[in-house]
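User: We ran a pulldown and think these components assemble together. Before we commit to crystallization trials, I'd like a predicted model of the whole complex to look at. Sequences follow.
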Amino acid sequence: MELIDGKKVASDIKLEIADEVEKIKQNGGKIPHLAAVLVGHDGASETYVANKIKACELVGVKSTLIRFEDTVSQDELLDKVEELNQHNDIDGFIVQLPLPDHISEQRVIEAIDPKKDVDGFHPVNVGRMVIGLPAFISATPAGILELMKRYNIDPSAKNCVIIGRSNIVGRPLSILLSQKREQGNATVTVCHTRTKNLKEVCTKADIIIVALGSPEFLQADMVKEGAVVIDVGTSRVKSDKTKSGWKLKGDVNFEEVAPKCSFITPVPGGVGPMTIVSLLRNTLLAAGKKIYN
Amino acid sequence: MELIDGKKVASDIKLEIADEVEKIKQNGGKIPHLAAVLVGHDGASETYVANKIKACELVGVKSTLIRFEDTVSQDELLDKVEELNQHNDIDGFIVQLPLPDHISEQRVIEAIDPKKDVDGFHPVNVGRMVIGLPAFISATPAGILELMKRYNIDPSAKNCVIIGRSNIVGRPLSILLSQKREQGNATVTVCHTRTKNLKEVCTKADIIIVALGSPEFLQADMVKEGAVVIDVGTSRVKSDKTKSGWKLKGDVNFEEVAPKCSFITPVPGGVGPMTIVSLLRNTLLAAGKKIYN
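Assistant: Here's a predicted model for the assembly, 586 residues in total across the polymer chains.
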């Protein structure tokens, strides 16, 4: 069993990105610039955005944080999105989700210029990805494909089971993995809450990707010997073994499943660290006009 | 075994649509109006477009046929698309594919206003469909879902295998069937040329949808007893039994497979007739501003 070290891969890629940014600077190019919009003071969102800004600093990407109180109106937020769409120096930006209930997340996402939508949530980017056109791919699917690539896990002709059909992980990943492309050509089955014979489906899988948010959902008897297991879940569960009183749990019963696997991602330190790297990568693509001209 | 009579269902639905159009007229509403752009004189395209126009006439939908020689330049075609986008009376339009080699189909598709894209090929409609937002669904997937609905075939919790990953059939169908929606919630596996254990995968399926364009690809030993089989293939093969010298063949070895099925679509007369109905339905949705306001 080999542990997929997302933390190490992410830190390697950050060095690669830092090199690319350094080269842009040396060639007198414009420094890539990411903006992040944060509404309110949700603890998790604060942490995510802070980590994104920190990662930008680390690799030399310029960043701007724009804060609103959670009393901001939808129109004010949409005005800011439009301002960022027009902003000459900002190459890409994200609006950290979730947003307060009185604001339509979908309205905000659709207001973002697809050319600056480095989260890849805009319908234009989703549609282009599905069709096979250049598109910003959302962070978690892109991170998982990159992790697999770095560990020489080729999904081509493999049976791949994805548990979870969310718009930001399961769905796009299922499409990408089954397309005729590098890190594609897998035979992909999407499972979800309504799947009846999940155990039977999973035991046939060469690669299992679990993205449910249900701690320790995947048990050893659902995994065949030698399978690759990618754990996207990150749930906070109470723990009396940590100072904070809680710890992160994945969707996989790691202790029992890991011995059966050829490769497995831990939680934390597996898929998680890759998401910020995907965002940085998309920011560079946006700055270089590599997706849209 | 019950034969799914697409011809009959399509003709029933045309009557329903004719009723709807009649009601619009009686209420003094604007008559729905579809335009079709046909480039060149490809035999199959001529037939498809003629059938679409004929179907419009039958149900009382206004139609306009716009013809170009295959020497038309891309810019001329894009100008026409823009004109149709702006045209006040035309609710929706299609550009019949394929286009001549010197014209980028993708450029033309992306030039169509998504609000008038009744073929559902624009990335915005594809993306919205994937996300679960209201969208124009392309004709073949929509027709198949409607056929299944009319025969009370509920895919929920069923194992559904789709053979073929094209952007206009296999891919959108795989997404729609596995979404949390009416005629959804299936456990869907997408198979393709790179799938290794196709026979094994197919024999587990409650529903098999074949969209490869490979005559008689699906054989009896790939189908479990009682399965539903939907045949999307339409290949012209030579025949000494018809006057024309050729006949249409599906992707299913019908004679051998049919006896094992609970339901099966024939070719011709199965999925084929439903596609025009889907187009008419989308035209009404466009005219009624049911997808976009």
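Chain A has a mean pLDDT of 97. That may be worth checking against your pulldown data before setting up trials.

User: Thanks, that helps.
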